[in-house]
């Protein structure tokens, strides 16, 4: 019996199950598209391995012996397990099951990803998503170093080295204390704010670098009074009157009813930024990662 694991194959078990179900070798052979002699040979091999008969051949068919009933019970379990494994593996290959690691910048996480990931999860409930926040430059670095399946970031310098799929438009606005001198304006140009002190994000953030660059092009230096690590803290600092801030417009809208602030659109052309999905090569994406990229790309 110790040779069963090495010598008993799935094809023989499948043919034996068919014979038991049909109660006839010829009908089982027809169902399985194989010659009757080949089916008989497979069953003879099973009996030789076990050393006992599993069926009794009769003129009009077969009957299953008590030994055969035991083999049949286990054979059906084995075949069912293989079929279940095949079905589960097919969900991996179709993207319906798996794990995806995404690295994304703060703007995309705060504004768009919660709703988009929730919608994706309703379609693909067995895909697990690990989401990590980084600034746009680090998003590119991590994707390049194979630390994530794909990234989401602003179209910063270096993004051209990756395959890209458009994701969303990130519109910037200025958040002012309600008592600010420009609070009654409808729209503002960034240059009108350069005499103010700013509350800003960390120096490595794409937004901070953009504002610093735009101030330099205007021949000015950005006066950042306080730096914080989150957009929530940024908005609360403005509420406290510690400066003005440029924030993604949708983020600013979240705080209009909770804080004593005003939100005004920036009319500068550069105030509309592109968010993109970046990855090394589409053919390198797992099925689950490709499904998520396709879903988020359609959301654009």
Automatic annotation (TrEMBL):
Give all residue intervals belonging to the HTH lysR-type domain. Answer: 8-65
Gene3D superfamilies on file? 3.40.190.290, Winged helix-like DNA-binding domain superfamily/Winged helix DNA-binding domain
Mention one GO molecular function: DNA binding
| SUPFAM superfamilies, alphabetized | Periplasmic binding protein-like II, Winged helix' DNA-binding domain
Keywords attached to this Swiss-Prot or TrEMBL record, sorted alphabetically, are: DNA-binding, Transcription, Transcription regulation
The record's comment on protein family reads: Belongs to the LysR transcriptional regulatory family.
Which PANTHER family does the entry mention?
HTH-TYPE TRANSCRIPTIONAL REGULATOR YBHD, LYSR FAMILY TRANSCRIPTIONAL REGULATOR
Q: What is this protein called?
A: Transcriptional regulator, LysR family
Query: To which species is this protein native?
Result: Paraburkholderia phenazinium
């Amino acid at each position: 019996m110790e040779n069963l694991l090495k010598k008993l194959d799935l094809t023989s078990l499948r043919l034996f199950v068919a014979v038991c179900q049909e109660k006839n070798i010829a009908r089982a052979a027809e169902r399985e598209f194989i010659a009757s002699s080949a089916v008989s040979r497979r069953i003879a091999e099973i009996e030789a391995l076990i050393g006992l008969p599993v069926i009794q051949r009769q003129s009009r068919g077969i009957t299953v012996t008590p030994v055969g009933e035991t083999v049949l019970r286990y054979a059906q379990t084995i075949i069912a397990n293989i079929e279940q494994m095949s079905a589960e593996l097919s969900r991996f290959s179709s993207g319906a099951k798996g794990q995806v690691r995404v690295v994304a910048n703060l703007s995309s996480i705060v504004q768009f990803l919660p709703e988009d990931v929730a919608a994706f999860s309703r379609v693909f409930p067995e895909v697990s998503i690990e989401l990590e926040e980084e600034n746009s430059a680090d998003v590119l670095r991590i994707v390049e170093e194979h630390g994530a399946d794909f990234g989401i970031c602003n179209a910063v310098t270096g993004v051209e080295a990756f395959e890209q799929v458009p994701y969303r438009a990130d519109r910037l606005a200025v958040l002012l204390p309600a008592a600010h001198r420009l609070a009654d304006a409808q729209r503002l140009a960034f240059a009108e704010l350069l005499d103010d002190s700013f509350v800003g994000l960390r120096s490595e953030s794409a937004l901070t670098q953009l504002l610093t660059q735009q101030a330099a092009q205007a021949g000015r230096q950005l006066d950042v009074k306080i730096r914080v690590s989150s957009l929530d803290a940024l908005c609360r600092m403005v509420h406290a009157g510690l400066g003005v801030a440029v924030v993604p417009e949708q983020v600013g809208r979240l705080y209009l009813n909770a804080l004593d602030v005003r939100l005004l659109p920036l009319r500068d052309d550069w105030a509309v930024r592109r968010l993109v999905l970046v990855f090394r090569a589409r053919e390198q994406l797992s099925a689950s990662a490709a499904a998520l990229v396709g879903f988020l790309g359609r959301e654009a």
